[in-house]
Design a protein that fits this description.
- This protein is α/β, with parallel strands linked by helices.
- The protein has helices at 16-29, 31-57, 92-99, 105-108, 138-148, 168-183, 185-190, 213-221, 241-247, 249-253, 278-286, 306-311, 347-356, 387-414, 424-433; strands spanning 111-116, 127-133, 152-158, 191-197, 227-230, 235-237, 257-260, 262-265, 290-292, 315-316, 327-331, 361-363, 369-371.
- The chain is globular and about 105 Å long.
- Keywords: Glycoprotein, Membrane, Signal-anchor, Transmembrane, Transmembrane helix.
- The chain crosses the membrane at residues 35-55.
- One of its GO terms (cellular component) is membrane.
């Protein structure tokens, strides 16, 4: 009769102990037995990890405390808290470095906030314009200040290894900066200047820096008002834009974004007098002298929607696209994400983060900007990005927005907000973004 020992080589003279020894040897050499042992060990490890994770997050201690009745030791602080939380005593530079720890150390170690600090303290509900400044663009800063007539948070980038005022080149640049402030009281009243140092090229130290997402974050972080305008270079606000934004701050308080339509003069224009009102600008647009510019689109054909703007009423962006990079205003802090700093200059990534985390994009037709190059000597007029650099940036952005979808989807789920209206932008956009990863990857749409 067949039994479990039928496959073992048992001789008639074999004793029971030898039979058991042969069985153990066979079992040890058996492939099936090894698989069963491996499965057992794997499930044991998974169970142990899950049980430990549950205890840690359920508030149950893994071991009993040595003495439950033992009182906690009171440690006297060695510094003056002045009745505030210790977080308020952290210097701005240290706090910024910790918040932006992925930035190159050459930048974060060479940041001096408020190198020049405005005399006026802006109201909390005011809007601070961000500005990127280099030594050959000081006049542009003055021009922006005169047009904005409000607080400005400017990042001044020194193309030097460090902010060493014993260096003749650094000393000369900083002296020019101080001189223009000395001569113009409006700069002293309204502009905070934050110094950043860092060489753009070790082989060619004379290369001037260009604006990046990092510079935007510096200006935003040290702005002294609750709202911040993300402004491109050579872009100028109309005289009423600031007051119109302030009158519509309720949109910003609810974590939404105000998009500022940007217009440029066309080749048909012979004079370049900036319009002040929606009516004046509309006449120029209808006459073919100016056009609505969305970077990457033909004039008047971008997501900002020329037809909706022409109607003159408040409206939201309906045809959002992930490469859309307008000038816009948002809250400085709160739940508004910081611009990812893996790119040099990609404001589209900033807006993409805000959009998929629930911000609605509003357009107030009366608040607009004019883009016009008033400084012919500006190095920013000459693009220096090679074809390879553009290809690399494009590939990086493709990987980034997929990553952002997963990251923020996880945050919505953990916060219990996945089934709320706040997550709808993410569901709509990421369903398209991740379509190549398998249709229906994101459920609940």
């Amino acid at each position: 009769m067949f039994n479990i020992f039928s496959t073992l080589p048992v001789s008639p003279s074999s004793s029971r102990p030898s039979t058991m020894t042969n069985f153990i040897r066979w079992l040890w050499r058996s492939k099936l037995a090894r698989i069963l042992v491996l499965v057992y060990l794997t499930f044991s490890a998974v169970f142990l990890f899950s049980f430990t994770h549950f205890l840690r997050h359920s508030g149950q201690p893994l071991t009993e405390p040595e003495n439950k009745n033992k009182s906690s030791a009171i440690v006297d602080r060695t510094y003056d808290t002045k009745g505030l939380s210790p977080i308020h005593e952290i210097k701005d530079k240290v706090r910024f470095n910790k918040m932006h720890s992925k930035m190159p150390q050459v930048y974060t170690d060479s940041v001096i906030p408020y190198y020049l600090r405005a005399y006026n303290t802006p109201e909390a509900e005011d809007v601070s314009a961000t500005a990127f400044v280099t030594e050959n663009r000081l006049e542009d800063l003055l021009r922006l200040t005169e047009m904005w007539q409000g607080p400005i948070s400017a990042t001044f980038h020194l193309p030097a290894k460090s902010i060493d005022e014993t260096d003749p080149a650094v000393r000369k640049t900083l002296l020019n900066l101080k001189n223009i402030f000395t001569k113009n009281s409006i700069l002293r009243r309204n502009v905070d200047v934050h110094l950043v140092a860092g060489l753009i090229s070790s082989k060619n130290p004379e290369i001037l820096p260009r604006p990046t997402n990092f510079h935007l974050n510096v200006a935003r972080f040290f702005a002294r008002s609750d709202f911040v305008m993300f402004l491109d270079h050579d872009t100028w606000p109309s005289s009423n834009t600031r007051s119109i934004i302030r009158n519509n701050k309720h949109l910003l308080v609810q974590n939404d974004v105000i998009v500022l339509p940007t217009f440029i003069f066309t080749e048909n224009a012979t004079t370049y007098e900036f319009p002040d009102t929606h009516t004046e600008l509309l006449d120029l647009v209808n006459g073919g002298l100016m056009g609505l510019q969305d970077d990457g689109w033909e004039l008047g054909s971008g997501p900002t929607s020329l037809n909706s703007w022409a109607n003159g009423d408040l409206y939201s962006i309906e045809e959002y696209e992930l490469h859309y990079r307008p000038n816009f205003v948002s809250k400085k802090g709160g739940s508004i994400p910081w611009c990812t700093e893996r790119f040099d200059d990609n404001k589209a990534a900033c807006l993409y983060q805000m959009y998929i985390t629930g911000s609605e994009l509003w357009v107030i037709p009366d608040a607009f900007l004019i883009r016009h190059h008033l400084n012919p000597d500006s190095h920013l007029l000459k693009p220096n990005e090679s074809k390879w650099a553009k290809a690399i940036d494009s590939r990086m952005y493709t990987k980034y927005y997929r990553e952002a979808c997963i990251h923020y989807a996880r945050q919505f789920v953990m916060a219990g907000e996945w089934d709320t209206n706040k997550a709808q932008h993410l569901k709509n956009e990421c369903n398209r973004v991740l379509i190549n990863w398998g249709k229906g990857l994101i459920e609940g749409i």
